[in-house]
Amino acid sequence: MRAGVFCHFMIWENLKLSLRLYSRPLSAMSGIIDEGNFLYGAAAVVAISLLLQFTVRTRIYERYEAVIAPPAQHQTARAQGEAAPAVPSGKEPSEEDEEDLPRGPVVQRLPLPLVGNYGWWFVSFAPFSAWTTLLALAALYVPSTILALVLVAPLGSFGVVLRRDYGPLLACTLVGWAAAHLPFALAGFALTPLKLGAGSAFALWLAGNLYFGFLMICALRTLCGVGYQHAAGAVALSWLSFCGESVVFKVGFSLISSPFLLFWIAPLLLGTIYAVTSAYRQRQRFSRNLEAATINPRDSEAHYQLGLIHQQRHQYHAAMERFKRAVEIDPRETDAHYQLGRIAREQGRLSEAIEHFGVVVTQDDKHAHSEVWREIGATYTAAAMYEEARSALERYLERRSYDPEGLYHYGEALNYLGQIEPAREVFRRCIEAAKTLPYYHRHQGRRWQKLAGSRLAARKERARGAGASSINHD
C-alpha cells in the first residue's frame, strides 16, 4: 500500500516537473536535480521514442533513407544522359558494369532538407529497438556532454565531474528529452490521418531536437553553474556522440551477447549503476535534509547552505531569500552577508553591496582569506569612487600581493586616478601573477590576464597614435 502511494506520488511530482519545463525550464531543471527519478525518465523516453518512431521518423525514413529505385530507372536515366540514382555503395556504376546492376529494387538515400547529403553523417532514421534511444542517452550522450563541458569550461578533471554529475545530468537528460519531443510526437500523431508529409515530419523531428538542445543548455547551466556560452558549446559538441549510433550499438550488443563476456561485464555494469544511483540519491537526500533543518527557527546554517546551492545554480532571487533569512536568524552570519554583498555587486546594487561588505569587515577583517577587501575595491571601482577603491585594494594586496583579480582592479583604480605608469606596472604584475598560478588555478587568472593585456595594448595604441599625430603636426 505504501509502495503504491509512493509510486503515484513520484509519478505525479515528476510529471509536474516535466510540464514546468515548458514554462520555467531553469526552475524545472533545479527541481529535477532535487526530486527527479531515473525510472520515470526512462519510461517516458521509451514511450515517446516509440511514438516518435511510428509517427515522424517512419515518414522520413521511407521518403529519404529507404527509397526504392527499380533497375530500369538506372537504364532510362543513362539513355537520357542524366545521372542515375545512387546505389548503396555511393558510387555510380560504370557502363562496363551496367550488366552487373541488381535485378531487383535498389535502395538509395536522397538528400535531406537544409543539410543535403551531409546530414547522413550525423543521423539515421532506420527503425530501432525500443531501448536504443534510452541506451544512447545514458551510455553515449550524457558522458560525451560531460566530456565536452570539461573541455570548454574549467570544471576539473573528467573523472571527478563524471562521478559527481552523471546521475543528476542523466535525470535531467531523460526528462528533458521526453518533454522536448512529446509535443512534436503528438503533432505527428494528430497529422497522421491527414497524410503527414516527409518534409513536415523532418521539420517536427528537427524542432524536437533543437528544443532538446535548449533544455540541455538549461540543465548544464543549472547543474554545473556554467555560462550559457559554455553550455551551448558543450551541447553542440555532444551531438557528435550520436554519429554512427546504430553501428555502435550493433557492435556493442554483438559483443556482450557472448555468455562468457556477459559473465564478466555484468558485475561491472551493476556496480556502476549502483554507484550512480546511490550518489544521486545521497545528493537528493542532502538537499531534503537541509530543507527539513530549516524548520528549526534558530538554524541559520541550513538556510545559508541552501542559499549556496541556489547561487551555484544562478537562482539569485532564491539565494538572496535564503541568505537574508540566515541573517535574520543570526545577524553575525558573516558568510551570508558576504554572499549578499557579492550578489548585490553583480546585479549593480553597489550601495547595498558596500553595506553588506561593511558588516563583514566589522565582524571579521580577514574573512574569505581577506577577499572581502578585493570585493570592496571592485565595488568602489564600479561606483567610480576610485580613491576609496585604491585604499581598499592596497590593504588587500598587502596580504595577497600575487592575486591577479586584485591586481587588475588595483590597476583600474590607478588608471582612473591618472597614475598611468604605476597602473601599467600593476597590469604587468597581473599578467605575471596569472602565468605563475598553479595549473589547477590557472583558468581562474586567465580572464584577468586577458583584461590586463588588453589594457596595456590599448595604452600602447593610444601612445602610438599620439606620437604619429605630433609628427604630422610638426
Describe the protein:
The protein is mostly helical. The chain is built from 19 helices and 2 strands. The protein has a domain of 230 residues. A two-stranded antiparallel sheet has the order 1-2. The C terminus is likely disordered.
Q: How does the SSE layout of this entry go?
A:
Elements: H1 2-20, H2 25-35, H3 38-65, E1 67-69, H4 71-79, E2 106-108, H5 132-152, H6 158-191, H7 198-224, H8 228-238, H9 245-256, H10 259-293, H11 300-312, H12 316-329, H13 334-346, H14 350-363, H15 371-382, H16 386-399, H17 404-416, H18 420-435, H19 442-473
Helix pairs in contact: 1-2, 2-6, 2-7, 3-6, 3-7, 5-6, 5-8, 6-7, 6-10, 7-8, 10-11, 11-12, 12-13, 13-14, 14-15, 15-16, 15-17, 16-17, 17-18, 17-19, 18-19
For this entry, give a set of tags.
mainly alpha; 1% strand; 19 helices; two-stranded antiparallel sheet; 474 residues; disordered C terminus; globular; single chain
Radius of gyration: 30 Å
Secondary structural class: mainly alpha
Calculate the mean pLDDT score and round it: 82
Major sheet size, sense and barrel closure: 2 strands, antiparallel
Count of discrete alpha- or pi-helical segments spanning 4 or more residues: 19
> Rough shape?
globular
What is the succession of H and E elements? Answer: HHHEHEHHHHHHHHHHHHHHH
The side-by-side strand order for the widest beta sheet comes to: 1-2
Q: How many beta-strand runs? A: 2
Specify the helix fraction band.
Answer: over 70%
Percent in strands: under 5%
Determine the N-to-C terminus distance. 96 Å
Low-confidence parts, pLDDT < 50 over ≥5 residues? 74-91, 244-248, 470-474
